[in-house]
Amino acid sequence: MFSERKVLLVVNPISGDVNKDVIFERVIEKTNEEGYDLRIYSTTGDHDLETIQEMVTNIKPERVLVAGGDGTISLVAETIRHSEIILGIIPAGSANGLSADFGLSGSIDQAMEVAFGDKSICIDAVSINGDISLHLSDIGLNALLVKNYEDSDTRGKMGYAREMLRTLSEHENFEVRITTDKGVIETEALIVIIANAQKYGTGVSINPIGDMSDGFFELVIAKKLDFIETAKILAGNTDFNPEIMQVVSVQKATIECLDKEAHFQIDGEYKGMVKHLETHIVKGYVRVAIP
Ligand SMILES: Nc1ncnc2c1ncn2[C@@H]1O[C@H](COP(=O)(O)OP(=O)(O)OP(=O)(O)O)[C@@H](O)[C@H]1O
Q1: What's the CA gap between 241 and 221, in Å, rounded?
Q2: Sign (positive/negative) of CA torsion 106, 140, 127, 50?
Q3: Residues 72, 78, 265, 123: what is their CA dihedral angle, to the nearest 10 degrees?
Q4: For residues 222 and 245, is the Cβ–Cβ distance under 8 A?
Q5: Do you know which Gene3D superfamilies this protein is assigned to (predicted)?
Q6: Closest residue (by CA) to atom 5 of ligand 1?
Q7: Could you give the CA distance from residue 125 to residue 76 in angstroms, rounded to a whole number?
Q8: Are 216 and 250 in contact, with CB atoms under 8 Å apart?
């Protein structure tokens, strides 16, 4: 059957611990029912951005569905940025931070309903030294945890707990200067989070005022915490205490590490050590289907 209504499904075959066969079956079934012409792309880890970009240009889909983690979602978002094409998320990564913020539970049934539903919002992104962050990026403690977890060959809760303890023993606070149009903050920090959203994938709410569509992002600056409190936060057992963290809503900021380089991660992907970050909001970056 010929159809003008096209859907592109992008699947990361290696992400998370999720059986992609079920996803294929459900998407094929749903697109048949709704009369969509379906195209499928499985990522290879090599030149995926260029290939997806070309497919989007040629196919002109109404929706692009992504079954993968935050890395694959960011990649696809880049290919449909500033367009009316709707991004449908089928959570299938290891952490699924973005999906959690959109209220997606992880069930395929719910994801399908949402991805083909008629509710969507246009979300902002944050540009950090030229890279795009859709969710939460940070320097300091959590970025070191992301690095340690990526470097370790264990997975699952036990592996996470072990890396968390190692991270707590290795981490050192750093001196930071943050310059925004609201003034200059100079402080010792445990972590500085550049937050477009509200919650980490663990469910910890670190930015309760976060709104992905408001034209602002938040800088969440946490100072020294004690060992137990920090462990609870990393493990996802408690939210940040407002007494020891400062939150500023901005459109632009310069972040400088004054005494040493700090570990840096974007949306769950470790990016190395940095001393200087230039950040600014990119309004209306991508349209996402929501519950
Ligand atoms: N076929 C493939 N083989 C190997 N690596 C791949 C393949 N397809 C994509 N990748 C890699 O997968 C990474 C993106 O993974 P993604 O973020 O989707 O899942 P994840 O890491 O399991 O989940 P999360 O981001 O939620 O932790 C990229 O580094 C990309 O290069």
Answers
A1: 11
A2: negative
A3: -100
A4: yes
A5: 2.60.200.40, Probable inorganic polyphosphate/atp-NAD kinase, domain 1
A6: 45
A7: 13
A8: yes
pLDDT confidence of residue 3: 61
Give the residue-averaged pLDDT of 234-261.
87
Select from 268, 199, 274, 275 the least CA-distant residue to 239.
199
The pLDDT of residue 50 is above 80: yes
Which of 9, 11, 14 should be mutated for ligand 1, with most atoms under 8 A from CB? 14
Whether the CA torsion 39, 43, 49, 51 is positive or negative: it is negative
Q: What is the pLDDT of residues 95-129, one digit of tens each?
A: 788 998 898 988 899 999 999 999 999 999 999 99
DSSP letters, 202-265, are T--BS-TT--TTSS-EEEEEE----HHHHHHHHHTSSPPPTTTEEEEEESEEEEEESSS-EEEE
Summarize the confidence of residues 198-215 as an average pLDDT: 87
Q: Summarize pLDDT for 52-75 with one digit per residue, the tens.
A: 999 999 999 999 999 999 999 999
pLDDT at residue 2 above 60? no
Among 227, 260, 265, 220, smallest CA distance to 244 is for 220
ipTM: 0.95
Residue with token string 């409190």: 229
What φ, ψ does residue 82 adopt, rounded to 5°?
A: 50, 40
Q: What pLDDT, on a 0 to 100 scale, did the predictor assign at position 143?
A: 96
Q: Tell whether the model's pLDDT for residue 242 goes beyond 90.
A: no
Choose the residue to mutate in 9, 12, 152 for probing ligand 1, maximizing ligand atoms within 8 Å of C-beta.
12
3-state secondary structure of 57: helix
Instruction: Please give the distance, rounded to the nearest whole angstrom, from the Cα atom of residue 258 to the centre of ligand 1.
Output: 33
Q: Which two tokens stand for residue 109?
A: 């049934």
Q: What is the mean pLDDT of residues 193-201?
A: 90
Domains along the chain? 6-118 (3.40.50.10330), 131-283 (2.60.200.40)
